[in-house]
Design goal:
This protein is mainly α and 86 residues long. It has 4 helices and no strands. Helix 1 packs across helix 3, helix 1 packs across helix 4 and helix 2 crosses helix 3.
């Protein structure tokens, strides 16, 4: 039976990340860009910085944001996300 009214459940498990993601990417963008050339800031350091800026994030959530920002940077999509904000 094909029911077009079937809804899929929300797969995202971290609404806190969604609330701060663009702002966090704005903070991380210059660090991620410089780290691409030379690892100057560790993931631990970036996570600590994010938790200081956004106390509602756990360290694990901060690492999710960092990994996503790094992936977006390497895929050359990070700037597009930042441009949507401004």
């Amino acid at each position: 039976m094909n029911n077009s009214l079937v809804t899929t459940p929300e797969r995202r498990q971290h609404p806190e990340i969604r609330q701060v993601f663009v702002d966090a990417c704005e903070i991380l963008a210059p660090i991620v860009a410089s780290n691409a050339k030379l690892q100057t800031v560790s993931a631990f350091g970036m996570a600590r910085m994010l938790v200081d800026y956004f106390p509602m994030l756990t360290p694990e959530q901060a690492h999710i944001v960092i990994a996503t920002a790094e992936k977006l940077h390497y895929d050359k999509r990070l700037q597009a996300i930042l441009n949507k904000k401004g």
